Amino acid sequence: MSSGSHHPTPPAPPLPSPPRPDPTRLDPNRKSRLEGRIFPLPVVGEKFSPLVAKPRGRNPPGFVVNRGLRRGGGGISPLRRFSSWFRDLNEEGITPLPGCRCLPSCTLPVFFEMESTNLSIKLWPPSQSTRLMLVDRMSRNLTTPSILSRRYGVLNKKEAEEDAKQIEAVAFATASQHFEKEPDGDGSSAVQLYAKESSRLMLEVIKRGPTAKEDGEINILDKIKKFHENVFDISGDPRVDISADDALKLLNPLKDPGNKYTKICFSNCSFGLDAAHIAEAILSSIKNQLTEVDLSDFVAGKSETDALEVMNKFSLALEGCDLRYLNLSNNALGEKGVRAFSALLKTQCNLEELYLINNGISEEAAEAVLELIPSTDRLKVLQFHNNMTGDEGAIAISKLVKNSSLLEDFRCSSTRVDSVGGIALAEALGTCTHLKKLDLRDNMFDVEAALVLSKALSTFSDLSEIYLSYLNLENEGSIALANALKESAPSLEVLDMAGNEITAEAAPALAACIVSKQFLTKLNLAENELKDEGAILIAKALEEDHGQLYEVDMSTNSIRRAGARCLAQAVLSKPGFKLLNINGNFISDEGVDEVKDIFKNSPSLIGPLDENDPEGEDYDEEAEEVDDNEDELEFQLKGLEIKH
């Protein structure tokens, strides 16, 4: 696949939402057979073969499919649209079975197929937004270091975007041709072919590797991104293999006797052994003046043996330096990589910021970090995003956290942590009274861990941002957390609790919490089940004050016309407001027109509304009755007093 231009594919027609089955919650007396099968694309790793995956926990986010049969009706209620099937394996909590060696950074789409004897569903073609989402995910995958990229190299952003667009266009055309001849006519085999072709073509591109060198000779000095008195940064594009000669040219300024560099950034490079040997001598000569070192993504395309040796050389060169900031992200470290940096890590007693993002941090690797770093007394930022830590690894991390009383920013999102690890982290966080930013997204904490975390929240008086989406909190956990936040964090600016199976039952607690947060700038409650009743209470909580609010996301919440109208009216007059997202709901055509009319003088403030289902997939007698009396519902709920 070359990186040339291609003709854009015309937008596909809108697609009805496919059902989201949850066989564990269906009426046992129901005669129709409903099965869900997961078809992931092959994962890019040392073993390239279709990956059999299974969900972790009771209900992995995004595949939390159907709540069962609705009261008063027999219809299935699909609350996720086709576009939501394209999610990272990590975001969905999909764990590869033994034998798969993929890195946690893989961002390959997953398809969900339905079988139902009672339903007739068209799965093809996907919506334009779904297709764009696939392009974005493939593009990010092509630029993310992985096991294969060590051998073939990692594409730069521009090249990856072009290749991803062409891959999707070819796969879409192939699947569309197949769909025209598809005997069953529901599009399921076209969806599978779309996935298969996308995966096959992406593997071809990865094995082809970057083509930047074919376009002309690269001036290695173009890598220098920032070059002034204190900062030496060679992370600029293009990403290239650094030879010994390149290293001599690039690092020459560091050899000047009077240089005052205190920060170096070698990210977006690929150091070979010869280049590392040159760098080792130069870095050893200036290590005593360094306080910030960024070695993220600096061995892309190297074999494991070479990568570990390069890491070891840099570690020895920097041994004994007194750092405040260390970034080793995006290097596929694992335990071996962590230990390759032993010499450096063992001498760090004054670190204030440590980043180990997307590093394959397993249980053993997390324990190695705990073992090697002698002190975290001064640590203020600790980030472990997108790793394979699990419960045991989380327990090791919790010990780091417990010894970091000055911690202000903690990120442990997408790390495959379940309830046991979540409880350990929550208990440890109770000692971090200076915490300002907490990000635990995309784990499977469950209700029990949420209850423990709610106790820790009472100590966070300085908290400004909290991200708790896709933690399987449910109503009980969400209510406990909302009540705890109401009594703490007076300056909270960001509240994110998306994808937690929250219903209208928890809305009063959420509304009371929101009312108490007058500095709120961003609210995300997407992919829950708040419906009109919950949406109206949230809207009422936002009506008064909240002058700094600029974004509200209430998408995919089974909201109808009344809830949509209340939300629109609540945010319209906010002085700095930028975006209301209420897409993916059950808003009628008339309701959509009404919302657009509310924003007629500022249309940029309302997000797309094209994925709303006017009839609602769970349309039954109860829903019809609500629609008939929506004005009365709105009047009654808005008249309620939210308890502060």
Strand fraction: 5-15%
> Strand pairing plus helix content: what structural class?
alpha/beta
Mean pLDDT: 80
Shape: globular
Architecture per CATH nomenclature, i.e. the level-2 architecture of the domain at 23-212: Orthogonal Bundle
What composes the largest sheet?
14 strands, mixed
Strands, count: 20
Q: What is the rounded distance between the termini?
A: 59 Å
Low-confidence stretches: 1-7, 15-119, 619-624
Radius of gyration: 26 Å
**CATH topology-level fold name of the domain at 23-212:** Serum Albumin, Chain A, Domain 1
Helix content: 25-40%
Total of DSSP H or I helical runs spanning 4+ residues:
21
CATH homology-level superfamily of the domain at 23-212: WPP domain
The first-level CATH class name of the domain at 23-212: Mainly Alpha
| Strands ordered across the widest β-sheet | 5-6-8-10-11-12-13-14-15-16-17-18-19-20
Domain WPP: 120-215
Subcellular location: Cytoplasm; Nucleus
Biased composition (Basic and acidic residues): 22-31
Main location: cytoplasm
Brief sketch in words of this structure:
It is built from 21 helices and 20 strands. With 644 residues, the protein is α/β, with parallel strands linked by helices. One of its GO terms (cellular component) is nucleus.
